[in-house]
Design a protein that fits this description.
This protein is an all-alpha fold. The protein contains six helices and two strands; from the N terminus they run H-H-H-H-H-H-E-E.
Length: 298
């Protein structure tokens, strides 16, 4: 008897097999989540944008102007502080009735220094105003391109992860269909569990995302998961439809309705014929059995 010929009614799944299936599901999930994380292409797929030569020149000019303005502001603040000190010393001497030509000269020099600092600051501010528009345009272009690249990278990551999750789910369901009736069927269910949890991870990552093109991602995953589940359920039902009559016959039931049957030729529940003659030996043979009980022929 092959592995696929085994029947779950004949050999029940043991607790040890169920436990190992759970352990397998956990390790499968660890591997799936690791691969899911490795599919992040952000900051690596398209690379960082760069300024053109002319844009870099405008940025450098504006930065130089900003630095000059900062230096001019510091010089103006220092000149103002020196002027206030010189004025206070000169005023104190005048209030005392003293002649203080040196203090007066210091005060006049402090005034001239402040005037020069004011002029320097005004020139620096003018230069900043002249270089700012072009630098702002270059900066806006740079950050717009950076934002577009980040969106493209995030989009690629999303679709790779979506495809990976759907592939894992499809493979798991394929194993469920392929291993139905096998002792390894429980392990296939472990794969389905791991793939479903991975789908939940994907939905958790993107269900709250505000970017419009990703809003439908969880819906697509949900629809695909529902479709795959229904297909798998349909396949299992087809399998059960082929196996249920044999199970019923083995239990002494009608293969069509499940009503108890003894030695009758017709079912007392549905009236259908449940026993006939074997085509090989002509002995009595139950409807739904795979082999004749007398001659062993199929």
């Amino acid at each position: 008897m092959t592995t696929h010929a085994l029947d779950h009614d004949e050999i029940q799944t043991t607790r040890g097999e169920k436990f190992l299936a759970v352990v397998l599901g956990i390790f499968l999930l660890i591997g799936l989540v690791w691969a899911y994380g490795k599919l992040d292409t952000r900051d690596s797929y398209y690379g960082a944008p760069s300024y053109t030569a002319s844009e870099q020149a405008t940025i450098d000019l504006n930065q130089s102007a900003e630095q000059e303005r900062a230096a001019a502001q510091a010089a103006q603040a220092q000149a103002l502080s020196n002027l206030e000190l010189a004025r206070e010393r000169y005023r104190t001497a005048l209030d005392a009735g003293l002649s203080a030509p040196d203090l007066e000269a210091d005060y006049r020099r402090a005034e001239d220094t402040l005037s020069s600092a004011d002029a320097r600051l005004a020139a620096a501010q003018q230069r900043v105003a002249e270089t700012q528009p072009a630098a702002q345009i270059a900066s806006d272009r740079f950050f717009d391109e950076q934002r577009r690249r980040q969106q493209r990278e995030a989009r690629v990551t999303f679709f790779l992860r979506l495809a990976f999750s759907l592939a894992a789910l499809g493979l798991a369901y394929g194993l469920v269909i392929g291993l139905r009736g096998s002792r390894y069927f429980t392990l296939a269910l472990a794969g389905v569990g791991a793939a479903v949890v991975l789908s939940l991870v994907l939905a958790g990552d993107y269900v709250e995302d505000y970017v419009a093109w990703r809003d439908t991602g969880p819906v697509v995953l949900s629809a695909a998961g529902i479709a795959l589940t229904f297909v798998t359920f349909w396949a299992l039902q087809r399998y059960l439809q082929r196996r249920i009559p044999l199970r019923r016959v083995r239990k002494g039931e009608c293969p069509f309705c499940g009503f108890p049957v003894t030695d009758n030729s017709s079912c007392e529940g549905c009236g259908r014929i449940v026993a006939g003659s074997c085509g090989s030996c002509a002995d009595r043979r139950r409807v739904g059995v795979l082999f004749c009980g007398s001659c062993g022929k199929a």
